[in-house]
Amino acid sequence: MSLDWSTMRATVRDLGVSPSEVLLAGSAPLVAVGALDHAGDLDVVAWGEAWATLASRGTVREGSLGDRVVDLAGGLQVFSGWHGAPAVEVLRRAMTRDGLQVLSLSDVIAYKRTLDRDKDREHLRALARWASEMTDEGSAASGRPPRRLADRTHAGELLAARLSDPDLPRPVVLALPRGGVPVAEPVARALSAELDVLVVRKLGVPANPEYAFGAIGERGVSVVDPRIVSAAGLSHDEVEAVERAERSELDRRRTVYRPGRPELDLRGRTAVVVDDGSATGATARAAIAVARGLGAARIVVAVGACPPDILALLGREADGSVAALTPEPFAAVGQWYQDFAQTSDDEVRRLLGLA
Do β-strands 201-205 and 194-197 pair in parallel, antiparallel, or remain unpaired? Predict the structure, then answer.
């Protein structure tokens, strides 16, 4: 059986239930966004009156992860939840396509990585190719007009798709607070990885704080570039004064974002460092240096919006780099988001499970 997006939409319409009480899952979201042309079957999550109506049309059985399932004609399976997650939870993260609610890409990726069948691996490769094409839109080389990311969650979904195919042994997703946290949450969910924050502080030249001569991180990690220190004519006392001030701010932020958590230990881990964007690469480069100092076996940088040359630079300093968007010309990260509202401490704490 081959179901394209038009057929899927018609199938849902013919169910005779409210579209507000159903969500398309399985491979349907990949068809909805255009990563696949068709799928062999259709999985639907239903609740409320829709579940009662559809469940009455077949024999309800218990799924392997606690969901109830009913098999209907035409290769349609209806679930009361999705792989152990309640319907209301997956609905909260859903996309909308043509008036239908569709499982988020991060939830699809996590599902397919768990199953790890041949067809699931092929679907993830197709999704990674699709996301790569989305990344290149708006770049000078593409010849297509620039587009913008809807918000930080959208950036995270695209990054999750970019990271769905490569092998990432023992991943830990490290967000750069604050703006990197809502981007990193969908990535961590897709990879079924631990989500934490990497608190770093740039060490800026006093006369030009945006020009970094080094960076500091947890566990006393300090990375200083002596060439920049020399070129800026900084004395030993000046370097120490900047580091003291930034260490105080780093400790404050660590208290806010990592209360009660042990110090980061990245030995033998793949560190996926995530931020909402990188105009100059300075903060991401500082994070790479700190992650190295904390013993990461491999580092992949994932950013929302980034100029192509900066992304390439980050890829050389880390073990890999991906972006959700690489537009040119590039003036600032915020110009490539429709919604770039400031991320609050409360939102960071909620996403980290601290609220």
Answer: unpaired
The answer as to whether 127 is a domain residue is: no
Tell which of 82, 103, 124 closes a domain. Answer: 103
Q: Note the pLDDT of residue 67.
A: 87
Q: pTM to 2 decimals?
A: 0.87
- Torsion, CA 15, CA 65, CA 128, CA 90, rounded to 10: 60
Q: Extract long-range pairs of 99-102: CB within 8 Å, 24+ residues apart.
A: 99/19, 100/9, 100/12, 100/19, 100/22, 100/24, 100/32, 101/19, 101/20, 101/22, 101/23, 101/24, 102/23, 102/24, 102/28, 102/29, 102/32
The answer to whether residues 61 and 209 belong to one domain is no
Same domain, 26 and 92: yes
Q: Please give the residue range of the domain that contains residue 240.
A: 201-257
> How is residue 36 written in tokens?
């696949």
Residue 193 and residue 209 in one domain: no
Check if the beta carbon of residue 315 is closer than 8 Å to that of residue 343.
Answer: no
Claim to verify: residue 209 and residue 339 sit in the same structural domain: no
User: How many Cα atoms within 13 Å fall on the side-chain side of residue 98?
Assistant: 15
One-letter amino acid at 191 equals: L
Task: Please give the average pLDDT of every successive group of 10 residues along the chain, which has 355 residues.
Answer: 91 94 96 95 95 95 86 90 91 94 96 91 94 73 73 96 85 94 97 93 84 80 85 94 92 86 89 93 87 93 94 95 92 92 91 82
Q: For residue 4, what pLDDT is reported?
A: 95
Among 215, 239, 257, give the residue marking a domain's end: 257
pLDDT of residue 142: 57
Q: How far is CA 302 from the centre of its chain?
A: 8
Q: By 3-state DSSP, what share of the chain in percent is helix, strand and coil, each rounded to 5?
A: 40, 25, 35
Same domain? For 221 and 82 the reply is no
Number of domains, the chain: 3
d(CA 211, CA 209): 5
